[in-house]
Amino acid sequence: MYSFINSTRSLKQRLNLFVTSVKELYPDIIGIAVTRMDDHDNLYSVYRSADYGDNFPTFIESISQSPRLSKMRASLEPSIIDNMLCHQSSVKHIHLRLLQSNCISSMACPIYTNGTFIGVLFINAKVKDFFSEKVNYFTTFSILITLLITDDFNNKKAFHSIVKTVLLLSHHKDPETQNHLKRVAEYSRLIGLYLAKKRKCDGDFVDSVYHFSDMHDIGKSLIPEDILYSTDIYTAEQRAIMNQHPELGCQLLSNILTTFKYDNNQELDIILNIIRHHHERYDGKGYPSQLKGTDIPLEARIVTVADVIDALLSHRPYKQPWSIDDVELYLINGSGTLFDPLCIDAILHSLDKIALIQSRYPDIIEEELPV
Predict the structure, then answer these.
(1) Distances in Å between the alpha carbon of 155 and those of 2, 267, 295?
(2) Which H or E run includes 80?
(3) Which CATH superfamily is domain 2-152 in?
(4) H helix intervals, 172-232
(5) CA–centroid distance for 76 within its chain
């Protein structure tokens, strides 16, 4: 049973082994899901057993809106529903989904590290009073799951720290502001959330894109300063040099991470795809690989839209900010040629939130002082 502890396996492989062993002991279990909390108080699935079904969402927005989950976060104590059928008169939509999957009882256990709440373990069973009778066992079960999750969490945290150090070192030459990077991350998150609701991606993917979208231009640190800082229209030769920054960024990050042992290849792929392909066009006329349509990785398609939105809305030495109406028209006109139509639909459904992000992370325009 304890082969799941083997750290050479991925988190999903270890959880699969663990869950299989537990379900052999308790066949009434019909689904197990492990979720993590993002920086915006939302839960997203990092693991779902094969029998969990599609009725349970992969993303739960703002757990503060759930009394059950809010109480759990505050107390760090498990929450048990002995009989889902008793809740039908006032049942929430999510409970109806569980009932449709033959779930009769449910247990939610907090996942936390060093006293900090980081997620929830959900376990469902097809008989009533299942967890109350075995609360000690499943509390221990949740602790073991917590060890696996926190190990993965700490590994990711170390990886993120290295990545952000790379960003900090590279950004000192980039004329764009830190708040530009924050806004691009927030716009990327808006797009990702919309796509997750449309089941085009999951919450784990959205969180990765949110954390790594600000790395898209790290290759600019290797561009000569006379080109990087220029406010003139580029010559063909200068443009060719500037267009090398996606590949240069991938080389920079790959070289730095060569000696860092990190087994989450999915995250590595996401960050490298963002860096390499955020200047591709949906019609195949972008660079560096001239990828077309859905051949462009989804994470790159998302960041492309987010980056363009912020560039248009921001002040630059060579232009004034566009109005939100002009940006909206540009995005609509570019849908299907410059941009992924789904990503454009996503941002058009979130236009009211763009102004809030701009106000939260404003650029500070340095004015020339009189001599």
Answers:
(1) 21, 12, 30
(2) strand 79-81
(3) GAF domain (3.30.450.40)
(4) 178-197, 203-212, 225-228
(5) 25
Q: Rounded distance, CA 15 to CA 325, Å?
A: 48
CA separation for the pair 245, 174 (Å, rounded): 12
User: For 146-165, how does the pLDDT look when each residue is reduced to its tens digit (9 = 90+)?
Assistant: 888 777 777 777 777 877 77
The amino acid at residue 8 is T
More confident site: 334 or 134:
334
The domain 172-360 is classified under which CATH number: 2.60.40.760, 3.30.300.20, 1.10.3210.10, 2.130.10.120? Answer: 1.10.3210.10
How many CA atoms are closer than 13 Å to the CA of 74, on its beta-carbon side?
8
What are the tokens at 32?
């197990």
**What confidence tens digit (pLDDT) does each residue in 61-104 have?**
788 888 888 999 999 999 998 887 776 545 566 666 666 667 88
Interatomic CA distance for residues 120 and 107, integer angstroms: 10
CA dihedral 13, 15, 19, 21 (to 10 degrees): 60
Which residues belong to the active site? 220
Angle, CA of 196, 199 and 202, to the nearest 5° = 50
Hey, what are 137's tokens?
């066992």
CA 349 to chain centre: 19
Q: Would you say residue 242 has pLDDT above 90?
A: yes
Q: In 255-286, which positions are buried (b, 16+ CB within 10 angstroms) versus exposed (e)? A: eebeeeeeeeeebbebbbbbbbbbbbbbeeeb
Q: Give 9: exposed, middle or buried? Use CB within 10 Å, 0-12, 13-18, 19+.
A: middle
Relative orientation angle of helices 265-277 and 135-171, to the nearest 10 degrees: 30
Neighbouring residues of 265: CB distance < 8 A, sequence distance ≥ 6:
none
161 burial (CB, 10 Å; 0-12 / 13-18 / 19+) is exposed
197 closest CA partner among 33, 354, 349, 358: 349
Closest residue by Cα to residue 243 from 195, 278, 272, 191: 278
In whole angstroms, give the CA distance from residue 277 to residue 294: 12
**Residue 292 above 60 pLDDT?**
yes
Q: Where exactly are the structural domains of the chain?
A: 2-152, 172-360
